[in-house]
Design brief:
About 40% of the residues lie in helices and about 15% in strands. It is built from 18 helices and 13 strands. A hairpin with a 2-residue loop joins strand 10 and strand 11. It has two domains: about 240 residues, Hypothetical protein af1432; about 120 residues, Alpha-Beta Plaits. The strands form five sheets. A four-stranded mixed beta sheet has the order 3-4-7-8. The chain has a three-stranded antiparallel beta sheet with strand order 5-9-6. A two-stranded antiparallel ribbon has the order 1-2. Keywords: Hydrolase.
């Protein structure tokens, strides 16, 4: 039984049974925030947004994730406090770190990160859920008359974002626990990777529990036992793998774009985007917005309802190709716009095509986060040092970022030919050919895994073969 569980047994609190962490207890002060409309809203936000439409087991929500992060944040700070009493961690610091883990995702919108992309792509609004989490935190405290000093509220907001750490006199290692801007190793990542892997059915080999257990503070920084260095690489590889296989799955992205279009068409009548300016309205905004549109009889929402109906019928936007961008062409290819594609085919209109830019990395853009992580040896636990990847394994990658450009077509008119089993989406094929011409002009080759073959091709004997194309 861990120390935090025993301590909470003495102080009170409530016990939670969780598929990731088993039985654990959160203190009473956490439930002052959990039992509010602002936090309970997280029950209506799926953790993986549109991934649920492809991975039907991914039914978990931001609510249980935030509880799990609070549990891990408390476990880590309690362990540090117990093992290193010289750090003089206070009850206040333990409480605020725990609450930072609990409240770090208060600001997520419908369908999680897809909402942020919608605001940027369709409304031109640069909006981040971390900033909204700070707004929602203040609103929650005021509306529910939670007794907190303003100084503590300000520090709690800093712990949630992980920013402004240099401008405070608080202990710096406290910022490494929930939102670690130093190397991105934090309890938020520990929980969401374990939870997302479990519910999406993806196997993971890294062990987050060892990272929580084998850490200590050296020179105001959380460091890890050197024997866990490969485990940390496995964690970042798991994150990359989840982005590649789940979060940016092409069908997930197709449905995401369809929901974005539905929100765009409904926004003038439902004022969805204006909710970010009013925390009271934002409290009422969740994944249920689709049902609000779908069940409305308002004729102004018909186009939006039609898109949602197509999602239900699996009439999705089609993928017309993708390219893995060579590192030396990253800036050139990733800046491609719709206009750059459609200029190669006069039959395409700007609204026919969607260009999707996908960037995957080890959480620090093109850098290796382990190069920013300090370790210690059991023989000298008070001396921190860096480890080069060549000291760990010769099979660790040299590149820590990859970029894709994908092309989707809306194909709203469903222009198709059906002759003797041949199904040919004209718009989709036109977009693919235009994309290929664009790539040829940049001396770049599309991915053969995402190439839709021409519906009619000649075999070796000159005989015409027809290919069934699956949408």
């Amino acid at each position: 039984m861990d120390d935090s569980f025993e301590v909470f047994g003495e102080r009170g609190g409530k016990t939670i049974n969780d598929p990731i962490h088993g039985h654990y207890t959160l203190p009473d002060y956490a439930f002052q925030m959990i039992d509010t409309p602002q936090f309970q809203r997280l029950r209506d936000l799926k953790q993986l947004g549109t991934s649920y439409y492809v991975f039907p087991g991914a039914v978990h929500h931001r609510f249980e994730h935030c509880l799990g992060v609070a549990r891990l944040a408390n476990k880590m700070i309690s362990q540090i406090r117990h093992k290193q009493p010289e750090l003089q961690v206070t009850d206040r610091e333990e409480k605020l770190v725990t609450l930072a883990g609990l409240c770090h995702d208060l600001g997520h919108g419908p369908f999680s990160h897809a909402f942020e992309e919608w605001l940027l792509m369709y409304k031109g609004i640069k909006w981040h859920h971390e900033d909204m989490s700070k707004t929602m935190l203040s609103h929650m405290i005021d509306e529910n008359q939670i007794d907190m000093e303003q100084e503590d509220i300000n520090f709690l907001k800093q712990l949630i974002t992980g920013k402004e750490r240099e401008s405070t006199r608080e202990k710096q290692f406290l910022f490494d626990i929930v939102a670690n801007m130093r190397n991105s190793i934090d309890v938020d990542k520990f929980d969401y990777l374990a939870r997302d892997c479990l519910f999406s059915g993806i196997k993971s080999s890294y062990d987050w529990a060892r990272l929580v257990h084998h850490c200590r503070v050296i020179e105001d920084e959380i460091c890890f036992n050197a024997k866990e260095v490969y485990n940390i690489y496995e964690m970042f590889h798991t994150r990359y793998s989840m982005h590649k296989r789940v979060y940016t799955h092409r069908v997930v992205k197709s449905i995401e774009f369809m929901i974005s279009d539905a929100l765009t068409l409904a926004d003038p009548y439902l004022n969805i985007s204006s909710a970010i300016e009013d925390p009271a309205e934002f409290t009422l905004l969740s994944d249920s917005i689709l049902k609000t549109i779908e069940t409305s009889k308002d004729p102004n929402l018909k186009e939006s309802r039609d898109i949602i109906s197509k999602i239900r019928k699996r009439q999705l936007y089609g993928s017309a190709g993708e390219v893995l961008v060579p590192p030396n062409q990253h800036e050139d290819i990733t800046s491609v716009r719709v206009e750059d594609i459609i200029q190669h085919d006069s039959s395409l209109q700007p609204n026919d095509v969607i260009v999707d830019h996908v960037v995957m990395n080890y959480a620090m853009r093109d850098k290796n986060p382990v190069n920013h992580t300090h370790f210690f040896s059991k023989y000298n636990p008070n001396q921190k040092f860096l480890m080069q990847k060549e000291e760990v394994s010769l099979l660790i990658p040299n590149q820590f970022r990859e970029s894709y450009v994908r092309i989707f077509v809306r194909d709203e008119k469903k222009v198709r030919e059906e002759t003797k089993g041949l199904v040919h989406g004209r718009q989709r094929l036109a977009a693919q050919r235009a994309f290929n011409k664009y790539l040829e002009s940049r001396n770049c080759n599309p991915s053969p895994l995402r190439m839709m073959p021409d519906p009619v091709t000649k075999g070796r004997e000159g005989v015409i073969h027809q290919r069934q194309l699956h949408f």
